[in-house]
Specification:
Structural class: alpha/beta
Distance between the termini: 22 Å
Number of strands: 5
Largest sheet: 5 strands, parallel
Order of helices and strands: EHHEHHEHHEHE
Strand order of the largest sheet: 3-2-1-4-5
Number of helices: 7
Helix content: 55-70%
Length: 131
């Protein structure tokens, strides 16, 4: 079991520098979890792709549906107090701290490419290696 942030999900479905690493992570550990917030962040990533013309509406919708299927039954609402405690002790956003809080609650790690999270929470956040 591993918590993944929205960017790791995006790399799984959208070709990029970390796509291979996201695919290998899924092969190694297919039990992915995320806070419910991932949906909004992921839709925003897809919206950017639609605006840049790299995805049309139907492609974006299909990718969103596929990602929702991957995380079916593995979406969580982190405890607000826990999230705010993490915010208080770091310079990370509450959005980002939701992923850390969930990983801590589940007793697992967060896979991310977010440098700020990797610096602030090195015992919980692990880098998704490029390649």
């Amino acid at each position: 079991m591993i918590v993944v942030d929205s960017n790791v999900l995006a790399y799984l479905y959208l070709p990029g520098e970390f796509t291979g690493a996201a695919e290998r992570l899924l092969e190694r550990d297919p039990d992915w979890h995320a806070p419910i917030l991932w949906r909004s962040e992921f839709r925003n990533i897809l919206a950017g792709c639609m605006r840049r013309g790299t995805l049309d509406f139907e492609q974006a919708h299909a990718i969103q549906c596929e990602a929702e299927s991957l995380l079916d039954g593995a979406e969580h609402e982190p405890d607000s107090r826990h999230v705010l405690e993490l915010v208080r002790g770091s310079d990370c956003s509450a959005y980002d701290c939701e992923f850390i809080a969930l990983a801590e609650t589940l007793g697992t790690r967060l896979s991310t490419i977010d440098a700020k999270l990797l610096r602030a929470f090195p015992r919980v956040a692990q880098p998704l290696a490029a390649g």
